[in-house]
Amino acid sequence: MLENHGQQDAAEQTVTKITVRPLSKEVKNQIIADNLRTSDVAWKSWLTLGSKEDISAQMSNIHIPIAILAGTADKALSPDVQPVMTLPYLKTATLETLDNAGHLLPWEAPDDVVAFIQRHVAI
Q1: Domain ranges across the chain
Q2: In the chain, where does DSSP find H-type helix?
Q3: 67-83: pLDDT as tens digits
């Protein structure tokens, strides 16, 4: 992933790997463009540092309601990870899953994401 960043072919492969639900050509092109627009510094920093940082000690200081939504078919961050790596540290958190959805829920299931937010946020 590090060595292929910024390459059109790699960005296209990434969107195919991390999404499950059908995407319009316009949406797929936007995701690819967003991937390619990410700076090398940000991309490398996330993959080598940010994604590996242990913030579990800070998470226990969060005392507000938290609602997590995960795709059941997320290959980038399996929903099975949440009960092990997130929920034990966030005592107020709840977890819901979307069937047959991958990693990019706002793109794959925008209506489901809106409904999820509306269920959890007082407007």
Answers
A1: 1-53, 56-123
A2: 8-18, 25-37, 40-48, 56-59, 82-85, 105-108, 110-120
A3: 999 999 999 999 999 99
